[in-house]
Amino acid sequence: YGEFVQNQLRWLDYTEISSALNIDTNEFVEKVEVIVSRLYEINKLEKNHPVIFAFFPQDMTKQFHSKLENIWWNLSDDIMKLEKQSNLPALKSKLFVIKILSTLDEYTKSNCKFRDLFLKHQEAQFNNVIDTRTVLKYMEEHRYIDVAAEMSKINQRKEGDEQVEKVLEELKSSLSRSLKGLAKNTMMKMVKLGDNEVDLDEAIEDAKNFVFKYVEKNTKEEIEKIESETKSSIQMWMLKVVATVKAAINCYNFREAEEKIKLIRKITRILGNRFEQISSDDSKEEKVMEKIGKISNSVDQLEQQLQKVLETVVEKYKNIDLKTAKFNPY
Predict the structure, then answer these.
(1) What is the DSSP letter of 275?
(2) Which of the four pLDDT bands, split at 50, 70 and 90, describes residue 14?
(3) What does the record list as coiled-coil region(s) (predicted)?
(4) DSSP code of 318?
(5) Region 108-133: what's the mean pLDDT?
(6) What is the rounded CA–CA span in Å between residue 50 and residue 46?
(7) pTM for the whole thing?
(8) Hey, what long-range contacts does 258-267 have (CB within 8 A, 24 or more apart)?
(9) Domain spans of the chain?
């Protein structure tokens, strides 16, 4: 019986555990349960029947405890390597083995408990897969290059993992809401331009280049529609500003005229460079660029008019002697 028990305890080594990943998990669980039973029997014999226990190999339990410690350290190293490699399937398999081995914690040292190892790395794995706070924060801040990087990491781990696939789908929905919100906020920003200087960032452009592949077609179409409406609003606003520039020039308000001309040129550049259409309808884009071209031509003419008026004013008053003049010509 002693030899029988010893042979069963010998089954538990690192090599056998590694091969257990490729066999029936139920078989592995059953073998561990058998070992737990044998250890219980040995402890009972040692306590209640010391004479019988004396016939057992005296170093049997000592060798087993040492073997458990070696297994713990080997599995700990494996887990850390798999986490660095982001090898999620292999990591899950190792964690399953460690969880089953936790039934042997009664026979391990305090610093080599399998349950502690399991809980530590299960939490890390759990956070690594479903902690979406970082990517959601990037969406909120419209940092779409960073969003794309985070979603790419999650996308690489989705194969065979329903939980990861579910998280990815939820992130795609959040991304769609973020993009729609960005487009609508940009629209409102344009409508309320007034005479203030506007500084549009490149968030929409980054979204198109890096994260549009994660959103549905209807989301792209909705953003396209909002962009088109935004352009129209900007164009109407710029035409009004052009009219105020003319009035400012006629009133010799050169500073106001120059500031508004700079503003119009800036918005024209933004329209031409950053708000590229998603639509394959080239005629729409041509019409937009045609309108922008007309506004640019108007601004060119206004700049020439401003220069001429300014030169006329300078020429008219440059020879006046301010010391003897009865009024301030400015």
Answers:
(1) -
(2) low
(3) 285-319
(4) T
(5) 78
(6) 5
(7) 0.42
(8) 258/306, 260/195, 261/299, 261/302, 261/303, 261/306, 263/195, 263/197, 263/198, 264/238, 264/295, 264/299, 265/296, 265/299, 266/197, 266/198, 267/193, 267/198, 267/234, 267/238
(9) 1-131
